[in-house]
Every structure is written in C-alpha cells, then in structure tokens.
Amino acid sequence: MPPETSNPNTRVAIVGVGQVGSAAAYALILGHVANELLLVDIKAELRDAQVRDLADVAYGNNSGIRVRAATYQEVGQCDIVVITAGSKHSRGETTVQHLYHKIAIIRGIVDEARPFRSDTILLIVANPVDLLTSLAQELSGLPKSQVLGSGTYLDSVRIRGLLAERAGVATSSIDAQVVGVHGPSEVVAWSGVTIGGVPIARWFPQNTDTLTDVANECKAKSQTIIRAKGGTPFGIGSVVCSICSSILFDKRDVCCLSHFLSEYKCCISLPVVLGRGGVMKAIDMQLDREEWEDLNETAQELKRTMERLKSDESQ
Predict the structure, then answer these.
(1) Per the annotation, does 19 bind a ligand?
(2) pLDDT tier at 4 (50, 70, 90 boundaries)?
(3) Does pTM top 0.85 for this prediction?
(4) Which domains occur in the chain, in start order?
(5) 216 a known binding residue?
(6) C-alpha to C-alpha distance for 291 and 261, rounded to whole angstroms
(7) Is 178 one of the annotated binding-site residues?
(8) What secondary structure does DSSP assign to 159-170, as a single string?
(9) Distance of CA 76 to the CA centre of its chain
(10) Would you place residue 37 in the very low, low, confident or very high pLDDT band (cuts 50, 70, 90)?
(11) Among 32, 89, 98, 182, the one annotated catalytic
(12) Are strands 198-199 and 178-179 parallel, antiparallel or unpaired?
C-alpha cells in the first residue's frame, strides 16, 4: 500500500508542464506526496496531454493521486504552487530581453493566481531562480517565509554525491552545503563540510586540488547537461519532490533554499529548517572569512540587479 499523505486533501499545483514541470509531477506521483496534482500551462494541448500521460502513472503506481488540468484561480488555493514556467531564447533575442521576458512570465503567473490562500507555499524553480524568487516574494502578498526558490538545493545534493564518490562513502554520510546565488558565483561552504562528522580537511589532507576539482565539476555540471539535452528535468524534478515532501509532511529537514534575507533585501540560498509553514527557522551557518566575503559579493550583485530592474520599470 502507498504511504498516507500528511493530509487527506493536500494539493500541489505545477505551473508550466514542459520538461521540468512534467518531471516534477512524475516524481511527486511516485513519491505519493499529495492527493491532487493540478497542472497549468498556456499551451492547453500540451497540458491536457501531460494530464492524460501522468494520470496513467498514477493508475499504474496505485497511488490514488488525482491529476487534472486547472485554472490560475484554482492554483492560488493549493497547499504548494510550483512555478517552473520559463522561456527559451528566441532568435535575435538579447540576454537582457530574455531576462525581461522571464520576469514578465513570473509577474503574469503570480498576478493571475492571486489572492493566494493564506498558508500557500510558493516554490520558484525557473531560472534565474534567486532573482525570480525575489520578484515573486514582492508580488505574491504571502509572508516571506512562504516564498521559496529551489536555489542551490540541487547543487548541494551534487557536491555531496561527488565527494562521496571520491571518499568512498555513502552520500548520507556527508554534510555539505552550496550557498549564495545559484550559478557561477555560488559558494561551496568548505569550512563546514564533514564526512561522518570528521572535517573534510582530514579526509584529503594532502590534496586540496581534489576539493577545487569537485567545486568546479559541481558548478559546471548543469551547463554540460543543458548543452547536451536542453535542461536538467530529472534532477530538478527530484528536488521539487523532496521540497514538497518536507513541507507537506512537516519533516523539519535542513536544506539550502533560496529565501528572503532582510540584510540584502533579496532571496539567496542559505540553510533553513523546512516545514509546513515554509521556512520554520534560518540556520546561523558558520562560514570562514573568505566564504562570507564571496557570499556577500554575490548577494550584493543580485541586490544591485534588483534595484536596476525596479529603476527601469519606474521610468
């Protein structure tokens, strides 16, 4: 028998059911995370086809999960709203134009879905995730603790996997976090990494190049996958499932997610305790001086970008 969900009426909405959204839905069904899965996409034919295909997964897995198409108004009444919708570069489109297009998509989705139920958790998966999470937090009207981004969650999973391979241990034995703004400027918090409670430096005392190689491989992995197949749907899908499970079952897992930090006035990734209310508690992470400087620099750059966007919109 499939495990019972935390509530007999839990609903998760996924907005955008392309590669990433459909992979997230697939993972949620296999994980028996919710009772109802609502799919939304501007491409009605694609949405309806995904509903039919994913319903077969639910039937075959004997999950009892109902998969159906939904409106934006229904989305706002769900326990969790996952926004994966984005856009691909159009021919002749500049990077700045592409960014503004993505911002317009997020703005449109949030505007259409409001008002959200007071306890709804909004999870942003679309990239640039920290910027779009910051924007969604401002637009949604929800408490800051209830607007999250996938941030560096997957990067933290990757760094643990890469270290586990080199150390010859299980991934679960490794405590490691990647923090900051998701992307090239993200920071591996090496000063706090342990394997079985033992500091990482004692595992690789003579070979600091190993750690550098691991950090570079972690940062480059997404781009190598995207170049080959256009996205990282399975990895992100599994992350969405883990995050939703932590929330709906109120697990109080510690994980790195993009969330609002008042000192920067934007959202970046640092460890939090994740539960039914979203961010239940921020973790006071111990970083060394260089790590804090790198984190601060990347956060300040995101803050400046947010300020430029606001300035452009006001003109």
Answers:
(1) yes
(2) very low
(3) yes
(4) 9-147 (3.40.50.720), 151-312 (3.90.110.10)
(5) no
(6) 17
(7) no
(8) HHHHHHHHHTS-
(9) 19
(10) very high
(11) 182
(12) unpaired
